[in-house]
Specification:
The structure holds 3 protein chains of 3 kinds. Chain A has 15 helices and 16 strands. By secondary structure, chain A is α/β, with parallel strands linked by helices. In chain A, helix 5 crosses helix 6 and helix 14 packs antiparallel against helix 15. Chain A starts with 8 loop residues before the first strand and ends with a strand. The C terminus of chain A is likely disordered. Chain B is mostly helical. Chain B has one domain: MetI-like (MetI-like fold). Chain B contains 10 helices and no strands. Chain C is mainly α. Chain C has one domain: Orthogonal Bundle (MetI-like fold). The radius of gyration of chain C is 20 Å and the shape is elongated. The chains are: A alpha/beta, B mainly alpha, C mainly alpha.
């Protein structure tokens, strides 16, 4: 693996993901930071200081390190594994173990696991212990080499969520290596995409990588569905929802048909007494019924899933529209009450508006204070 | 009469339990020779095996030694040194130590060199110095194999010390060699039985030792010769 | 080193070498013949494997001279005595190897064979044993080399082999004989080892190197 003429800055407190095909040098880059690999030329600066000025062992104790195979010490209990660096730093054992138990909780594990041995844990649990071990001495920098690649997709997704959550709390400077572009986009504040020859193709915020790939290599790498994935970076808050046709289930067929006619829509959303969605009714099913038939007695279509207006992304809204029998997304508030409806056309307009702002949205990521230069 | 009746008749004769050359005396002598050889061999082979396993330098030598040492005929080596050096402390200590080194060296090397790459990487990445990697990670993880090497060598020493009676060494082999020379099967069988018991006792000792020494996290893993 | 002794006693040396080869190779081959069914049994019925391995450990701990002596009442001071004892040791070496070899067959390969409709016996003979061959031959190599080297100890109970040169050399304080014995035993052991390495390459062309 070769790295050639690489110039990369990792802003403090951000997550930088190095992604690329295998053999492109992303792991080598990572291992240069804690001097597991020495560059033949060039420098690695940590907080402006060349890492080669530090004693390697001292340097590494100040940098958390997580690897794919976990590298947990099989002869040590979970708590002593986590306490590795504190113990190297000369903490008293009692204090180090107490810290280890705190960290277990932090990474979402039961502190009762502390006296177990690694072989007694599942793969996902082992990987969480690996993360806890890296965080034990509270290092400002965390290096993660394919940390989630060895676990199955469901657990991988939850570990990724966990990392994102931890980062909002801890604000470490994280450098994470992966071959999985989905993972890069999900967890990275910045993504550095490598070419197979070890040069950088593009270093950008994920939404810019998706929205403005610099060339066909980048767009091929991020995938043909990058447009859809880009939508997950835009909030649904600004959307103009329609209030019609939405009718309570205590209402009648006549009122429902009237609402549908006013809105010019063939589907009517029925809500329950709390204002939560109950189901979709096609206007043509109501037409033959008596005008005063209560809507609650008419069998409705499943409404599928909804999107939460305040917290969800455009992608979730689009998803909700696609999976709805009515072809309309139901927006709800945080309590699950219907806030309004959204059609394809409205969504397409929103998507186009979002793409136009991509350029500005990503621009500010590069103006962070520099901390780590690799 | 079977081997065991011959052996038992001889072992239970009261006369064999008193005076110079008695059973307790020869058992102690046998343990002394085996134990001393094992100790010297361990002091040489364990540090060497750790160094080779940790650095990877000299690995080819160890791997070839692993194959070659079984081919060395113990009896021939003992006799050659006796003829060349005369009958002395060195005569029996040197060949015993030489023969005890390979199993300890090879197993120690394999144990240390075989530590999972991810674990080594993690130790390095956690900021351990070379010495800390060896003492805190590699040696504890290699401990099951180091014990296997010591056990193999110890049992081998009990056997070799028996044969060394042929070049004048004391110990339980004396009964066998002297009995064969005078065509008396009693002491031959008795000596052989005691040697067998001693060897099995050493085996049991190491089984107990591994329970004590091997970290619980490693005990689940399989061990091999 | 007296080369004249070597040339005068050429026929004796040749005869002792053949005898050593016989005492070393036969036990290993019998050991192979017995250890494969034993190993297959232990690999198939898992409960059988721990007691088998424990027994193997204990028997292997018995010093060779003591085992030769223990067999005297039954088998006398004969070639058979040494061959039976060395066969036992070979078993101790090979049974764990056969078990390990069979267990080393990758689970997907095993499942693929089952899925394609192999019966148990055909799967064993057609898939598992061939794949275990490198490990089994590895055990056979150790068994042959050890047997050849241990056969010389049989000389102490009067069973003739190259070990004769050690005893005779000691009694006459004549190092040449001892050198010749040592060298020939080691050369013989390494030669058999090489033959087995060749056999493994011929039998398992799919294995690396």
């Amino acid at each position: 693996m070769a790295v050639d003429a690489l110039d990369l800055e990792v802003p403090a407190g951000k997550t930088m993901v190095l992604v690329g095909p295998s053999g492109c040098g992303k792991t080598t880059t990572l291992r240069m930071i804690n001097r597991l690999v020495e560059p033949t030329e060039g420098r690695v600066l940590l907080d402006g200081r060349d890492v080669r000025q530090s004693n390697p062992a001292q340097l590494r104790r100040g940098i958390g390190y997580v690897i794919q195979q976990t590298g947990l010490f099989p002869h040590r209990t979970v708590q002593d594994n986590i306490a590795t660096v504190p113990l190297l730093d000369g903490w008293p054992r009692k204090k180090a173990r107490a810290r280890a138990r705190d960290l277990l909780a932090l990474v979402g594990l039961d502190p009762a696991l502390a006296p177990r041995y690694p072989y007694q844990l599942s793969g996902g649990q082992q990987q969480r212990v690996g993360v806890a071990r890296a965080l034990a001495a509270d290092p400002p920098v965390l290096l993660m080499d394919e940390p989630f690649s060895a676990v199955d997709p469901l657990i991988r997704a939850s570990l990724q969520d966990e990392l994102v959550r931890l980062q909002t709390e801890l604000r470490k400077t994280v450098v994470l290596v992966t071959h999985d572009i989905e993972e890069a986009i999900k967890v990275g504040d910045l993504v550095a995409l490598y070419r197979p020859d070890g040069r950088l193709a593009q270093v950008d915020a994920p939404q810019r990588l998706l929205g403005m790939p610099v060339d066909s290599y980048v767009s091929d790498f991020v995938g043909f569905d990058r447009g859809i994935r880009l939508l997950s970076f835009f909030r649904a808050t600004g959307l103009n929802l329609r209030a019609e046709p939405i009718v309570g289930s205590d209402s009648t067929v006549a009122k429902a048909l009237g609402a549908a006619r006013d809105a010019g829509q063939p589907w009517i959303l029925v809500t329950d007494s709390d204002g939560k969605p109950r189901g979709w009714l096609p206007a043509e099913r109501l037409a033959p019924l008596a005008d005063d038939t209560p809507l609650g007695t008419v069998p409705a279509e499943e409404f599928g899933h909804t999107f939460t207006v305040e917290t969800d992304s455009l992608r979730a809204a689009l998803d909700a529209a696609l999976l709805s029998p009515a072809g309309q997304a139901i927006g709800v508030d945080s309590a699950g009450r219907v806030a309004g409806l959204l059609s394809y056309d409205q969504l397409r307009a929103a998507v186009q508006a979002a793409e136009a702002t991509t350029k500005d949205a990503a621009g500010d990521a590069e103006q962070q204070p520099r901390s780590l230069r690799a | 009469m079977s081997f065991f009746t011959f052996a038992w008749d001889w072992v239970t004769q009261a006369a064999n339990w008193h005076g110079p050359g008695s059973i307790p005396h020869q058992v102690l002598a046998h343990l002394g020779y085996s134990g001393l050889s094992l100790l010297v061999a361990a002091l040489i082979a364990i540090p060497l095996g750790i160094a080779i396993g940790h650095t990877g330098r000299g690995a080819v030598f160890v791997v070839n030694l692993a194959n070659a040492w079984r081919a060395i005929p113990t009896l021939g080596l003992l006799i050659l040194l006796a003829v060349l050096l005369g009958f002395s402390f060195v005569t029996w200590l040197v060949p015993l130590v030489v023969l005890a080194i390979p199993p300890i060296l090879v197993n120690t090397y394999e144990g240390v060199a075989g530590v999972d790459r991810g674990v080594k990487d993690a130790a390095l990445g956690a900021g351990m110095t070379g010495w800390q990697q060896v003492t805190r990670v590699e040696v504890p993880i290699a401990m099951p194999l180091i014990l296997v090497g010591l056990r193999t060598a110890a049992i081998f020493m009990v056997a070799t010390a028996t044969i060394a009676a042929y070049i004048g060494l004391g110990g339980l082999g004396r009964y066998i060699v002297d009995g064969l020379a005078s065509d008396q099967y009693g002491p031959v069988a008795g000596g052989a039985l005691l040697v067998i018991i001693l060897a099995v006792a050493v085996l049991a000792l190491f089984a107990g030792l591994s329970r004590l020494i091997i970290p619980a996290g490693l005990r689940r893993q399989g061990r091999s010769e | 080193m007296s080369w004249s002794w070597v040339s005068v006693n050429g026929s004796l040396i040749w005869q002792l070498t053949r005898q050593t080869a016989y005492l070393g190779v036969v036990p290993a081959l019998i050991g192979l013949a017995i250890s494969v069914p034993l190993g297959v049994t232990a690999a198939r019925w898992r409960w059988f494997s721990p007691p088998a391995l424990a027994a193997v450990n204990v028997i292997y701990a018995i010093p060779s001279l003591a085992l030769f002596i223990a067999l005297i009442p039954a088998l006398g001071l004969s070639d058979t005595n040494v061959i039976v004892a060395l066969t036992l040791f070979s078993l101790c070496i090979m049974v764990p190897n056969v078990i390990a070899g069979l267990r080393s067959v990758a689970e997907p390969v095993r499942q693929a064979a089952t899925a394609m409709g192999y019966g148990q016996l055909r799967q064993l003979v057609g898939v598992e044993l061939p794949l275990a061959t490198p490990v089994i031959i590895g055990g056979l190599r150790v068994a042959v080399v050890s047997s050849i080297s241990l056969a010389s100890v049989g000389q102490l109970i009067g069973v003739s082999s190259l070990g004769y040169l050690f005893i005779d050399g000691l009694q006459r304080s004549f190092p040449t004989e001892i050198y010749v014995g040592l060298v020939l035993i080691i050369v013989l052991a390494l030669a058999c080892d090489l033959v087995l390495v060749g056999a493994r390459r011929a039998l398992t062309p799919w294995a690396a190197r």
